[in-house]
Amino acid sequence: MQALNFDLVSTSFLNHLTIERGLSVHTISAYRRDLVKFENFLNGKPLDEVDPQVIADFEISLKTSQASPASISRINSTLRSFFKHAVSEFGIANPTFEMAPSQSKRRLPKALTIDQIMSLINAAYRESEPITLRDQAMIELLYSSGARVSELVGINIADIASAQSADGEITTLKLRGKGSKERIVPLGSFATKAITDYLVRIRPMLAAKNSKTNTALFLNSRGVRLTRQSAWNMVIRAAKDAGIEAHVSPHVFRHSYATHLLDGGADIRVVQELLGHASVTTTQIYTLITIDKVRESYSLAHPRARG
């Protein structure tokens, strides 16, 4: 019997995730990175010779290399899914059946304060660089919509719409989330104004640099759709200019969006819908932040809170 080739099984698995489960390109890339680490550890050992001891040794190697508990938990999850597919499609024994799910400590998302958000928005725009009006609009939109960075750069002009309601005109935004799922979120007046300013003053100039029609909302200096990396760099630069020393990334605005909504009294089910979470359990981690604030206030204010 011919040894089972790792590349054959991994290609089949990744195709399954892409075609049948509809996972995003970035999620597939994360799975692929985890599998490459495991393949390197195997060093040519055929998959049908992998047993629970090999799996245990691999986990020890991850700990020895000082991989974080969260990374180890994610890689273990990848291997369980990978071998489940291998069992189903190639009929090998499952070596991960003894693997217990890693109980990594759940970290609270780090939210920015409202003052920090305002500092970032103000720092993003520099009068000497008119194109940064786009950057300011991007930060306003990240905070106003809770969009992931991949969703942000994927927005098209046609995804922004206006409608009349009993309370006046409202602006909505269509976002394409994980697994190609779409959701509609409202946009605040500040984000709407920032986007309008960008569309009127900056985007036509950028679009003129590319002969092909581009439907993307946010364009780079060459007139094509902005990349995730460019969005990251813009946020990091704004944080530096604002003098914010805490780690800041596009995802921090999503954390801040959820936390500030819950702090303001929004229902958790509404926040779940706005974030595009499949389960409210995922959203509930943000309630831990607000509970922590309540506990701190109670501890400081109540005369019998502490001994």
UniProtKB/TrEMBL annotation:
Superkingdom field: Bacteria
SUPFAM superfamilies listed in its UniProt record: DNA breaking-rejoining enzymes
GO annotation, cellular component aspect: cytoplasm
GO BP field: cell division; chromosome segregation; DNA transposition
Active site: R148, K178, H251, R254, H277, Y286 (o-(3'-phospho-dna)-tyrosine intermediate)
Boundaries of every Core-binding (CB) domain copy: 4-87
UniProt keywords, alphabetically: Cell cycle, Cell division, Chromosome partition, Cytoplasm, DNA integration, DNA recombination, DNA-binding
Compartment annotation: Cytoplasm
Domain Tyr recombinase per the UniProt entry, residue ranges: 107-299
Principal location class: cytoplasm
GO molecular function, one term: DNA binding
NCBIfam families found in the cross-reference section: PRK00283.1 (NF001399)
Annotated family: Belongs to the 'phage' integrase family. XerC subfamily.
Quaternary structure, from the entry: Forms a cyclic heterotetrameric complex composed of two molecules of XerC and two molecules of XerD.
Function, in words: Site-specific tyrosine recombinase, which acts by catalyzing the cutting and rejoining of the recombining DNA molecules. The XerC-XerD complex is essential to convert dimers of the bacterial chromosome into monomers to permit their segregation at cell division. It also contributes to the segregational stability of plasmids.
Designated name of the protein: Tyrosine recombinase XerC
